[in-house]
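Help! Submission page says 'invalid entity' but I think these are all valid:
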Amino acid sequence: MATAAVLLLPSGRVQAIRIAQEIPVELDARFTSPSEPTAQDAGAESLFWREERIRSGDTLTSVFKRLELDTADVHAVVEADGKTKALSQLRIGETVAVAVGEEGQLAKVKYSPSPTETYLYEHGDSDNSFQSQHVVETPESMPRVREGRISSSLFADAAAVGLSQAQIMELAGIFGWDIDFALDLRAGDTFSVLYDEQYLDGRKIGNGDILAARFTNQGTTYTAVRFVGPDGSAAYYTPEGQPMRKEFLRAPLDFTRVSSDFNPRRLHPLFKTVRPHNGIDYAAPRGTPVYAAGGGKVIAVGYSNSRGNYVDIQHNGKHATRYYHLDRFRVKKGQVVKQGQVIGAVGSTGYATGPHLHYEFLVDGVHRNPRTVALPKADSIPARLKAPFAMRTNSVLAQLDHLGTAHLATRE
Ligand SMILES: [Zn+2]
């Protein structure tokens, strides 16, 4: 079998398989407790389950070794895994469970890459081979609305009403094109979020995507609806079908790292004079990644006394962005960059009193305020999808209003 050949050395030993990079593990239980005997196990003999958590630097071999499996069994399981290769994609924090019989012989191996998905490798009745089974369960969805008001920070206030860290990032991602969460958030701003909670056998296993959301920032209300096109791609739109996503990021760095009490200084601290200020300053710890605000080409990378280390990006005939005082570069002149790509890190090179990013946005060569300039938009809902989009929008916005206390934004 081709797959097994990849995994086995000529000598027959199992080759080390690289474990994928660490990914954040949801707090929800990822595993049905292996110690509970299942109906299938209620046979002539009882099985004893053991499990091992994947650690940094683990290989399938090292995991199986800790589980005290013998080489022949490891072989047979890897062979059974030939088609799916699920066991070659183990990630740090995940668990592999094995069941052994009373005589210590390996009967089952179980691996669940997600709460709804399980790979089971079961010993055959006669020969020493394993049969693999891939079980995918469909969770039940329960719509849920969470809403709140900003009093300290987006993270604190959204977490206080029950949104997870991942959902808060998702929310910030949806509205981050219109609202600069680093500098524009105010006490009294409000938000409401509709999503599905997912249950399996009555147990909550996770959250679905945000289906609709509202954010009122300094009196302006933004509404977003998730819509999945016929090609399966999902995006967020205004109720009128305009994309939330824009061709440029509102803030070209992680807003959670920007210090909010930073005042852009009109009076230049080094020269003690009022200097024209063509951009916006974000104070953030040295090393904070700086992103390309939009896709384009790096037209300049260099150093000058006033700018420090700087990067200039040309996005098309019309738009250009500039990034100053960088600690280090991650791009070269002439390089094509994608939106959100890391181009450097916040620093204090050149005339800068402390680590900050000075960011400029130019339209047709003229400096514009990046916080208020109208950003070009991605594609809106095409005419042929207007009807299904309108139906979807009406349905999710009705849920958003009726499942929440509703109209929070207009209450005192
Ligand atoms: Zn500046």
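Support: the input was valid. A stray whitespace character was the problem, and the output above is from the cleaned input. The helical segments are 2-7, 60-66, 71-80, 154-160, 165-175, 386-403.
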